[in-house]
Write a sequence for this structure.
């Protein structure tokens, strides 16, 4: 009897098939071989499901943007160990090839933003921009920032939109976000700044501490983790927020929108930031229904279908828009 | 991939895969001797892949643990000799820890960053091919031309990239130790072979 395949062998074969399918359609013989493989062991179909799921998940790497530079994400210690320490001659040979590849990969990106570089996103786009000090900025939909690093400070201006800053520690050179003439500075923090037309600028500190400088109309304040501040002038006060609320507020970083009790029309407005497809709610009572859940930001139609199931409503496509109605079939009430 | 397959894969990615580290942890503590947690995980996933519909599954984490438990039971029944202590272990299997655990959310929240880190940790050639395929959405054929390697070698790199992610995410960021360093040399030699063959 043949030796039983290990789960590792199966994972390898499942990865091979997934890569094969990623390359293009299978030939008829390939399809037969694929089906035969699937039937061979009760673990294979499951292993294939997992390999495909991870392949599917890795498609979201596109959100990293063409400027993605993997070098910025290497774990420093580990890369040093695997690259430079104790290389055998054979490994050293492959390393030479690897070095060339590393250069090629780095050159793929637009490179690190130069002084005064503007980085922006289109509607529906989320983009991660690595900065040269190891900090990163994740830009939400329709956002523009300008990066100007000097010897004294790491200055980023939020021109419009919403961004999450992960600041690498540097006590000597503060990281400063300038927004509407206000200065938010930190040595190390993770925080979100949002500047939308209608609302006052909103700051949410997830981790570390951010100092908000005084303005002619407001006092300076130090914001700790799990604190939110709307820059609204004399009346502005920091508010503590729970960890779950922070998670919800930052769900867009995964391309998601989280709601907990917001009205349906508020949720529809949130989706409008990410897509040209509008969600129209024709029924005022339906528009006030509270929405709870986690949804893909780029899928207003999917959201509408889910909502329709919950609230027993009807979804229709009208031109580029999605229309939600409830009660009697549309038209019947008008006659 | 058919639309239904893609839907199931997406469901699996969102609802099941985040629980794999917890499931593996539970299995390695609770599964009877001789039952390999990785075998049980794959077989459980097969059951999920073959379900007619997943619409009725309200609590995917609890469901997954239940499926894994049924797989173990099947293995134990199949075995000719059941060690006495297995029975005790099966008692323990009655209470898997199905409460939501922090990693369920951690993976969701930081998925993109995790993915960036995982890609960054891949062997360099594999990483280059994977970045071109997944970040730049370039077809495998074009990657082959750009990297001046055969299409088969590109396919191998993509396969290794996926295997790398299986290890990375299935073990909560800890990949199996041998994956990275030896692979580069291995694939380089595959490439050498492929090129020699194509010359004939």
């Amino acid at each position: 009897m043949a030796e039983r395949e290990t789960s590792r062998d199966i994972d390898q074969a499942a990865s091979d098939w997934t890569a094969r399918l990623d390359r293009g359609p299978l030939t008829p013989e390939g399809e037969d071989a694929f089906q035969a493989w699937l039937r061979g062991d009760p673990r294979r179909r499951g292993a294939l499901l997992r390999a495909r799921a991870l392949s599917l998940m890795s498609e979201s790497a596109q959100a990293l943007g063409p400027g993605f530079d993997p070098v910025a994400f290497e774990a420093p210690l580990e890369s040093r160990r695997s690259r430079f320490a104790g290389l055998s001659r054979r490994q050293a040979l492959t390393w030479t090839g690897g070095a060339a590849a590393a250069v090629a990969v780095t050159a793929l990106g637009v490179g690190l933003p130069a002084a005064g570089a503007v980085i922006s996103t289109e509607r529906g786009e989320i983009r991660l921009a690595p900065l040269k000090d190891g900090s990163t900025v994740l830009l939400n939909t329709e956002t523009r920032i300008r990066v100007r690093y000097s010897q004294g400070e790491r200055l980023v201006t939020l021109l419009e939109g919403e961004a999450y800053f992960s600041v690498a520690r540097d006590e000597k050179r503060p990281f400063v976000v300038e927004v509407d003439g206000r200065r938010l500075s930190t040595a190390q923090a993770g925080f979100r700044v949002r500047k939308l037309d209608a609302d006052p600028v909103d700051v949410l500190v997830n981790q570390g501490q951010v100092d908000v400088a005084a303005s002619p109309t407001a006092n300076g304040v130090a914001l700790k983790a799990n604190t939110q501040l709307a820059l609204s002038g004399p009346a502005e006060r920091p508010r503590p927020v729970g960890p779950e609320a922070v998670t919800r507020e930052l769900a867009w970083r995964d391309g998601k929108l989280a709601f907990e009790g917001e009205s349906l029309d508020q949720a529809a407005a949130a989706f409008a930031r990410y897509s040209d497809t509008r969600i129209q709610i024709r029924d005022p009572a339906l528009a006030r229904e509270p929405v709870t859940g986690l949804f893909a930001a780029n899928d207003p139609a999917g959201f509408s279908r889910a909502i329709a199931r919950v609230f027993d409503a009807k979804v229709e496509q009208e031109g580029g828009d999605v229309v939600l109605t409830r009660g009697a079939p549309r038209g019947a009430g008008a006659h | 991939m058919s639309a239904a397959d893609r839907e199931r894969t997406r469901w699996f990615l969102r609802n099941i895969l985040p629980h794999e580290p917890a499931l593996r942890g539970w299995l390695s503590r609770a599964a009877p001797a001789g039952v390999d947690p990785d075998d049980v995980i794959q077989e459980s996933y097969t059951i999920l892949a073959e379900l007619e519909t997943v619409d009725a599954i309200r609590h995917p984490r609890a469901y997954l643990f239940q499926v894994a438990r049924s797989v173990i039971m099947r293995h134990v029944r199949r075995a000719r000799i059941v060690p006495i202590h297995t029975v005790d272990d099966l008692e323990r299997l009655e209470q898997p820890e199905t409460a939501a655990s922090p990693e369920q959310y951690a993976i969701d929240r930081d998925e993109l960053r995790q993915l960036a880190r995982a890609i960054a940790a891949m062997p360099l050639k594999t990483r280059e091919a994977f970045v071109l395929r997944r970040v730049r959405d370039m077809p495998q054929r074009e990657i082959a031309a750009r990297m001046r390697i055969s299409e088969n070698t590109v396919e191998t790199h993509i396969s290794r990239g996926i295997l790398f992610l299986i290890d990375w995410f299935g073990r909560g960021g800890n990949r199996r130790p041998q994956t990275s360093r030896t692979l580069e040399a291995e694939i380089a030699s595959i490439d050498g072979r492929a090129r020699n063959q194509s010359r004939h």
Summary: DSSP finds nine helices and 18 strands in chain A. The mean pLDDT of chain A is 80.
